[in-house]
Every structure is written in C-alpha cells, then in structure tokens.
Automatic annotation (TrEMBL):
Initiates the restart of stalled replication forks, which reloads the replicative helicase on sites other than the origin of replication. Recognizes and binds to abandoned replication forks and remodels them to uncover a helicase loading site. Promotes assembly of the primosome at these replication forks. Belongs to the helicase family. PriA subfamily. This is Replication restart protein PriA. InterPro entries: DEAD/DEAH_box_helicase_dom (IPR011545), Helicase_ATP-bd (IPR014001), Helicase_C-like (IPR001650), P-loop_NTPase (IPR027417), PriA (IPR005259), PriA_3primeBD (IPR041222), PriA_3primeBD_sf (IPR042115), PriA_C (IPR041236). The keyword Lipid metabolism does not apply. The gene is priA. PANTHER family: PRIMOSOMAL PROTEIN N. Pfam families: DEAD (PF00270), PriA_3primeBD (PF17764), PriA_C (PF18074), Zn_ribbon_PriA (PF18319). Zn(2+) 1 binds at C442, C445, C482, C485. Gene3D superfamilies: P-loop containing nucleotide triphosphate hydrolases (3.40.50.300), PriA, 3(prime) DNA-binding domain (3.40.1440.60). The lineage of its organism: Bacteria, Pseudomonadati, Pseudomonadota, Alphaproteobacteria, Rhodobacterales. It comes from the Bacteria. It comes from Fuscovulum blasticum DSM 2131. SUPFAM superfamilies: CHY zinc finger-like (SSF161219), P-loop containing nucleoside triphosphate hydrolases (SSF52540).
Amino acid sequence: MKDSASVAERVFDEGEVVGVLTTEPLGRLLDYKAPEGGCGTGDFVEVPLGPRRVLGVVWGKGEGRWDPAKVRPIARVLDARPMRAELRSFLTRAADYTLTPWPAMLRLATRAPGLFDPPSMRKVYRLAGPVPNRLTEARARVVEALRGWGGAAVTLRELAEAAGCGTGVVKGLVKLGVLAEEEAPKDTPYPPLNPAGLRALAGQQVAAADALVQATTAGEYQTFLLKGVTGSGKTEVYLEAVAECLRRGRQALVLLPEIALTADFLARVEARFGARPGEWHSGVTQTERRRLWKMCGEGGVELVVGARSALFLPFRDLGLIVVDEEHDTSYKQEEGVLYNARDMAVLRASICGCPVVLSSATPSLESWANAEAGKYLRLDLGARFGVAELPAMKAIDMRAESLAANRWISPTLARGVEARLERGEQALLFINRRGYAPVTLCRACGAQVGCDHCDARMVEHRFLKRLVCHQCGATKPVPQACPSCGVEGKMAAVGPGVERLAEEVAERFPKARLAVLSSDLFGSARALKEQIETIAAGAADIIIGTQIVAKGHNFPLLTLVGVIDADLGLQGSDLRAAERTFQLMRQVAGRAGRADRPGEAWLQTHQPEHPVIRAILGGDEEAFWRAEASERRAAGVPPYGRMAGIILSGPDVAQIFDLGGELARRAEPLLRAGAQVFGPAPAPIARVRGRHRVRLLVKAPKAVPLQPALAEWVAQVKIPANVRLAIDIDPQSF
Ligand code: ADP
Ligand code: ZN
C-alpha cells in the first residue's frame, strides 16, 4: 500500500495562516494560525469558534482576508491520519456538483461518532448479569435493544437513543448489575482476506471478469455497467475483481442498496475470502463504525461493504468500487445532503483513478444511456448460471377474471398457487403496498382519513391496530365515527395492502404456511434476515411480500411469482414511472426458479396491451430502453438534459408560494445560461410533518453548466429563517 498517506503534504510553521474547513455551517474556509509545532494540509484539528471548539480539517494556505492580528490559532491538532488529497478533492467536487455547502459535505465524511475521543472517554455497555423478570418498561427496552445488537458493545448515547429513554435508565441497569460498563475496545485491524483460489467461471462470465480484472490491475478509472439477469453470476464476476484488488494490496468498496441484503453478502464474502469484511451502515454500532473509519485510513481493512454513506470513508488506497443493484432508488439520499450514491461513486473512482462497477439486472436508463454513448463500458452476462432458466412470464387479464368484492387473487392465479402447494414448492404473491388497506373512508359521506401533518392518506395497519402516515410516521387509532360527518360505524377499509392480502390467502389456502415480508413488520434488520433465512429453508409455502422481496433474496423452492397489481406503478404522471415498473416487475419475477426448478411469473393486469406490460412480459428489452430513451430525449429530460428541483418548505403556504414566485420572476441568470424554469407548483409531496412544500423545476440542455447559474439565481432571493430551500440536482421524479 502506498505510504504517502501518512505524511502531511505541506507543513505550515507556527503562526502561518491556514484555511480550515469546519463542520459548522459557515461559508467555506475559515482562517486560523498554525499552532505550536505547526500543522499540515489534511490535518484534523480542533478550532475555536466563538465560545466553542469545533472539528475542522486544514484545507491549505489561508486566504489572508482577515487582519492577521485577529486570526486565532488552531486549538489542537488531533491524533488522526490527515485527510488525503483524494478525499478532499472528492468532497469539494461532490459539494459543488450537488450545490451543498462544504461544511455539510465534511460532516458526511466525519460521521463516525466519538472519532477523536481518547478510548478512556469512551465507555461501552453490554449485558452482564441475569436479567430480572420484572423490569420497568424503559429498562426492558434497553435490554431488548442490546439483545438486538447481538452482544456487541454499545455506547451510552446510542443505547439510550435505541431504547428511547434517558441515559439514567442505562446507568440504573449498571447499578443493578444487569449491564456492565467497560472501556471501549481498542480499534484493531480486520482479519486479512485471502484472495487466492480463482473460481471456475463459465461462458460470458469469463470475458466480463477478465475486463474487470484487467482494469483493476491497471488501476485506471473506468466505469463498467455489468448487466445480467438475476442469477447470471454478476456477484461472482465482480468478486473476481475484488480478489484482484486485494492481491494488489489496495482496498475495495462494495455498496449495497439495502441493509437487509448485507447479511447474505457478508456470508458470501466470508465463504469466498475466508474472513468477514468491514461493515458500514446505520445498523452497525458506533464503536464498530469508529473502528472501521480508523482502519480505512490506516489500511487495516481491505474490503468494506456498506450503504451509500460508506462512499465518504477515508480510504487509504481505494482500488475498486462496486455499486450493486445500481438502479435502486435508495441510492438517492432524499434528506439533508441530496446526492445519488451511484453518481458519486463514479466521481470518487475518477478521482482515485480506479474502476467502478455498476451492477444490475435492470440498469437505470441513465446508465444504459451512458453505455450507449460509450462513456461506460457495458459487460453483458446473458443466461442464468447453470440450469436455472429465466421464469416464463404471462399476463392474467383481470377484465376476464371474476372476483368477489374485496378479493384480489384471481381464479387463474389461485390455481397456480394450488399446483405449487401440491408439488411442495413455494409461491410468492407480490403487492407493493404496506399495511392493510391504502384508504380508509366513510361510507356515509365519502371522506377519506388523511394525515394531520402531511398531504397523505392514512394507511390502516391491522397489525399495529392503527392508522399510519407513510410520509411522517404519525399514527392514530382507527376512528369509530367519521371525523368529517360524525356518522358511526360506516368507516371502511378500501383496497388491498399486504396484510389484507395475507388475510385472503389464509382464508383460501387454510393449510398453507404463510410468511409475510414487509419492512414495517420487522423491528430490526436482524429479525428480517432471520425470517428470510427460514423462508429460504422451506419453512413457508406461500410468501406474501412488498418491495423488499424484490431485492436479491434467494429462495430455491420458489417457482411461482404472482404480481397482484402490475398496473400500480403505471399511474401518475412521473416520467420515470415506466422505468420503475419495468425494473420492479423484472426484479420480482427474477425471484422465481433460481435453483434447478424452472419458475413462472404471472402478472395480474387490467391493461395487458400497455407497452410497459408488454415489455415486461419478455418482449425485446433493448427495444423498451430505446423507446424510453427517445421519449426522454424528446422531453429534454435526464439523461438527455439537465434538471434540478428547488424545494421551498415552510409553515406558511402563502409565504413559500410568494418566494417561489419571486424566484420564478428573477430567472434571468438561468435564462441567460440557456435554462428554463417551471413552477412554483406544489411539490410531489405537498406537505410533510406540517411543513408545506413547493417546487420549481429547472431544465437545461446537456451542454449548459447548470450549477453556477443555479447558485447565482437562488442567491438573489433572501430566504427567511423559517423557510428551507433545498436544491435537488437530478431529481428522482419529474
Ligand atoms: P447475480 O449476482 O447475477 O444474481 P450470482 O453471482 O449471485 O448472480 O450467481 C447466482 C448463483 O450461481 C450463485 O449461487 C452463485 O454462487 C452461482 N454461480 C454463478 N456463477 C458461478 C460459477 N462460475 N461457478 C459456481 N457457481 C456460480
Ligand atoms: Zn404525516
């Protein structure tokens, strides 16, 4: 591994003025004087800011805009590896692309808690003694939370947070002897991985792996689009590139879209490389995250598997990035700093000078188009590995099926499920709706129950015995009387959700063992993983699931997938609706027939002749992409044009519409650059948590450098303190 990383690039002598980027929302660089003993570029430092001390990184020479007599000295240089030039450059370029203030970007890169505390200050807690049968509710929650972490050492703050109680409750349990308080363990390197033992690849896998391995050896930037149906061996192929990266002594990063997928993946890495890699996501303890952050910088971890935020880790020598399921919308961070991890992975790889692999069975139109244009190198894996065939797909025309009221499984689909049960195989019924019923309305007056804080309907969850807002999480009891007209006993659940479908299945197939997979039914990623494992082992006959079943899980006995409502995603005006539906349906169908049994996927639809439905049913996939591409090109939207959304949110709807109107009137900087502005209009979700939201959309031809124009434009309007303005470059919906 290169060793330059441990040497600061430029040494400033005591008293020299340096520019420091802090994590506080204050412009860009602040001037400070180098402390006694000097400092270097990239050093982590603590600097005085008003009465406080805050974290910062020495970014370079000071700008000298202030009277040197007034510039304060850096309080102390922290005992950590300096941030490398590569990461600093990534942070500033990512910030400038997404129009994020630099300090907010630095916060993303320093998000391991207690990063710079000495170990003696970091106490951790674990279960020590017997747990008494009777505990107060809060204490019981603490014990429960610790068990959820499976015996890991957890800090005071995160334990209290997870249990939703004060820190005193934790301390009380220590006094009782139920918990032990210990000093945090030392941050030790991760066990080495063994990259030896090449897999015997087959068919198109060979050429694809060769290309990836070659690029990894060369250590040059290149984006690959690795495309192949589920089960074609994409993971197998990119793990060869990971192996090569490890042999070169460089670090590799694999991004996964969903925490629930990591357990499977970690097991696979362990089987392949003989040890577990570093793991980074919100389900990992703070102590472990801190260790991983440190080991990234010291080279004490060779492979990191993580969620999108792993992109901001301070790798010492990153040699390969993989973005698995690259089309997945959860790569887009929709709160705080708005970024798409897939695009940022490409940016970081280009700065590191290393290959990046975007892997998917159903690539995003963006990546497909970039491959068409020759910017990305496309590698195709055609068939499924071994004997497994892609499932045969067909539409069930719901116009020709007879269904009783409040029933959603057609006679045709029911017969298919029946046949699976007789053969001892599994069937999966997919419905992309959580809860019991999407609408609760009054049969007397027709009013629907909505959220008090959002523009969203409340969804009934029988499991919780409450109505839940899927926007903000607010809940309320199912009303006996209509909140609008007051008539009693007329409230009705309308439409199907996963829980209601489960009810129908239980009635129709009373002997079958059911498993319901919906993200909200599981308290933790661990519980979900256990459920998935028992299903894979054959503990269920019928699986009923929402979107989470579409993602990468492997059920060998599953031979029939039934999609309850294939038309669901096709409604609405979003230009991405077709792409989304296409991807989701193909992914779900890909769950069937992964092992030695052929699978089938049946789609219940009211519009079997819809072009998207026809494309899903195994028509010409490339033709679908080309048709989509030409529609987007005609509309001048991504990936054939640039786009940004400006969201104004605030408590007063008139105020934010006024501000939006003012922005629209002062569009001169945009127009001059060749961009257009639309709106203001209510945002796709017009009210969240009591805050109203309006949106303006900016559209520009590809050649327009949009960011500087946007920055100049929004700077003209003063945004009051009670309003938030967020700029969303490349919005997900338009
Ligand atoms: P994908 O990532 O495209 O869904 P995987 O890499 O998970 O596909 O491969 C699907 C299954 O086939 C896995 O169980 C994997 O171990 C197996 N497999 C794929 N290629 C090979 C190979 N060349 N040799 C042995 N097993 C393979
Ligand atoms: Zn709400």
